[in-house]
Amino acid sequence: MSELHVDGPLQAGDRAPNIVLDAITREGKIALEDYRGHSPILVGLFRGLHCPFCRRHIAAQAQLDAALHEKGVESLTVVNTPIERARLYFRYHPLPNLLAASDPERISHRAFGLPNLEFTESETEWPRKVGMDVVRSMQVEIPGEFPGPMNRLAAFDYLNNKDGYEITEADQRMLAVGHGQLFGQFLLDREGIVRWSFTEVPDGGQHMFEAPSPQELMSAASQVAG
Q1: DSSP string for 170-201
Q2: Distance between CA atoms of residues 75 and 100, nearest Å
Q3: Fewest CB within 10 angstroms: 11, 43, 138, 196, which?
């Protein structure tokens, strides 16, 4: 497919591009165009499985799968992890009914307008560049996960250690080019039009590693399905 480049994340009212990716949890390809005219779909464009926050966001989206299906809404998870690495991970960490696709080149992320941050020493031009001085000042707190607020870089390593997640060579390759990839979730109607979204882009990075609440997401799904 041809790559699309847009100025910032797609917004409500924008037509989503057709993306065609290798399926992880089944054989063959997955194309967004296959859903057009048939059903709304929630598309989660996440970083690679090396990101502990994204692993939690993926699990949270998967937990809503049955409720989304009740409303006639499909769900697709996209990760920038090579397919064999992703299949191995989900073989040992299965999520029932998860439909997932591999996008190690992050074509879908770019097509939906999600930036890949460049990390600098002290220059910040959000959401294109961010200084490490800013990153180190950012705190994240997840009740039940951390003993208290943590620096976001420290939190990344803390959760991977907590999960026993081993960074492989395949993960290292993804980190080398996509460590700053921002994630987003986009709810498309039956015609492939964006009706709701959540991304890490707004407010200068204050939403990094956050995710929408299940209530917010299901409320949006109800409106699209209605």
Answers
A1: HHHHHHHHHTTB--EEEEE-TTSBEEEEEES-
A2: 9
A3: 11
